[in-house]
Amino acid sequence: MHTSRISGFYKMSVEERVKIVKEFANLSDDEVSILLKTGRLDIGLADRMIENVIGTLELPLGIATNFLINNKDYLIPMAIEEPSVVAAASNAARMCRDGGGLFAASTDSLMISQIQLVGITSPHSALMKILQHKDEIMKIANEKDPVLIKLGGGVRDVEVRIVNTSVGPMVITHLIVDVKDAMGANAVNTMAEAVAPYIEKITGGKVLLRIVSNLADRRLVRAWTKVPKESVGGEGVVDGIVYAWAFAAADPYRAATHNKGIMNGVIAVALATGQDTRALEAGAHSYAARSGRYTTLSTWEKDDEGNLVGYLEMPMAVGVVGGATRVNPVARVALKILGVKSARELAEVMGAVGLAQNLAALRALATEGIQKGHMKLHARQIAIAAGAVGDEVDKVVAEMIKEGVIRIDRAKEILNKLRGLS
Ligand code: MEV
Fold first, then answer.
1. Which of 65, 83, 195, 345 could form a disulfide with 377 if both were Cys (CB 3.0 to 4.6 A apart)?
2. How far is the CA of 213 from the centre of ligand 1 (A)?
3. Measuring CA to CA, how many Å separate 63 from each of 86, 182, 265?
4. Cβ contact 387:359 at 8 Å
5. Ligand 1 centroid – CA 28 distance (Å)
6. What are the Cα distances from residue 249, in Å, to 118, 245, 252, 304?
7. What is the pLDDT of residue 189?
8. Distance CA 80, CA 268 (A)
9. What count of Cα atoms within 13 Å lies in the side-chain half-sphere of residue 158?
């Protein structure tokens, strides 16, 4: 009898868990050895990172080249399953380089944590009481993280909002915390929990949630670039890119895909460096909807000389200390390849990569479409799967693309012909 009700699964060894999953899902011995054959992330380490571990999952790790950001050269580690993304980023970075590269700036690493207060008859007097005790609230919060204080971080401000909800008004306190080089969710959650009893005491209300906000709109990165019109393919292509952006800026259906293209770059670097990718996605999309209507995170314009100018602004809650960044050995190496010295520098690099990725997608869409590039990479994979080696690969790819037929059976036929076998 199959049941997913398994008591104490978390206490078992990895092997015991795999045995149970094997029976449940009728896995073969080969499938079990796929689970148990882990790579650079040691299974014991993985078992300490999350619960109920039965294996690890690997992704290709590529390097995007040509990036010049704030006049510094970077090799960009990107972990992603999608073909074309790394090539497209490198290509766009080369175009940006012609105009002096990409530039980026970041705000301080300010995270927000929210404390929800309910059961208040006079929300405005509660709001005033909280603000009057701001210094004490900041002191209680800061006492929770002496290490952060020593590094120059800590609570910078306390803000209070009244939010009218379907079950009545709520008084929402925001702690604005400089988390320095950490992603910071843990630090600010601890602080929110620490100040909650004090807020209850001074207001007489009841605190419910105490949690970080992923709409990290105080922790922004801004990236921009100017691409010479010749580098992008002429003024016609510049116009095409501006039209592509304008479409997205006006239409949420298109904006979602436009921003997805930005996140292809951002999340690939985030995965490579062990960041919380869900927090980044939540921050990006909520920021894109901050006006009440979902729109683009980037803007593309044509300057007086007909060159292309791109600008991107988005939250970027990333860390270079704590979390998986320091635990996952691959993430550690990826950070070393990047050579970033701080979370802010990492955020700036990621913003620049997002902007370049966006440029690559819009340029492809505004010209030949993205399928041509995709198909070429796809055809390579098919040719290799058919057994092509060395320069046979390019010959098989060229023939399949010429015919417009990209299939393994056709690749095998072409290969046999090349080898004089048919
Ligand atoms: C594909 O992963 C990303 C694109 O769809 C982005 C875009 O449409 O701008 C090409």
1. 83
2. 28
3. 7, 24, 12
4. no
5. 38
6. 38, 6, 7, 22
7. 98
8. 5
9. 25
In angstroms, what is the span from residue 121 Cα to ligand 1's centroid?
A: 50
- What the block records as the tokens of 67 is 């990036």
* Residues of the chain below pLDDT 70: 1
CB of residue 261 inside a 6 A radius of ligand 1: yes
Strand ranges of the sheet holding 154-165, from the earlier edge strand across to the other edge: 154-165, 168-178, 110-118, 206-213
Domains in the chain, CATH or no CATH each: 16-58 (no CATH), 63-107+219-367 (3.90.770.10), 110-213 (3.30.70.420), 373-418 (no CATH)
**Interval 348-372: pLDDT, tens:** 999 999 999 999 999 999 998 877 7
Pairing state between β 72-79 and 154-165: unpaired
- Element (H or E) spanning 80, and its range? none
- Evaluate: CB of 260 within 6 angstroms of ligand 1: yes
